[in-house]
Amino acid sequence: MSEKPSSLGEILESQLNRLSQGRFTNTISLQRLWPQFVGPKIASHSKILYVKNGEALIGVDHSAWLNELNLMKTEILAKIQSSARECGVTTLRFKIHS
Q1: Shortest CA distance to 94 belongs to which of 53, 62, 81, 17?
Q2: What's the rounded Cα separation, in Å, for the pair 29 and 53?
Q3: Residue 94, strand partner residues
Q4: CA angle 46, 49, 52 (to 5 degrees)
């Protein structure tokens, strides 16, 4: 017995759900590992907001921490790519976020 073919809308919805699930999973994974990448002190002043299209957006609570993280950007990215390669992060962006 053959199944009825899926509509284009159903296929698109399924693919979009799968893609957004991956972004959500990557974000959660990095949020959990963030203190290991930057240490507990900096982690208490920053958090992963999302991972999308290879970019991790990190919210920081003060401009001094934003500056510190920008100085550490290359080192942090190397740690992420080494320990959380499955997240697909290729760039980091920091912004003030309360």
Answers
A1: 62
A2: 15
A3: 58
A4: 135
Do the Cβ atoms of 84 and 47 come closer than 8 Å?
no
Alpha-carbon dihedral angle through residues 21, 26, 27, 32, given to the nearest 10 degrees? 130
pLDDT (tens digit per residue) in 45-66 = 999 999 999 999 999 999 999 9
Structure tokens at 72: 């550490």
* Residue 16 φ/ψ region, left for φ over 0, alpha for ψ in the -120 to 50 degree band, beta for the rest: alpha
**60 has which bridge partners?**
46, 96
pTM: 0.75
pLDDT tens, position by position, 5-58:
677 766 655 554 555 445 567 888 899 999 999 999 999 999 999 999 999 999
Summary count for the chain: helices (H), strands (E):
3, 3
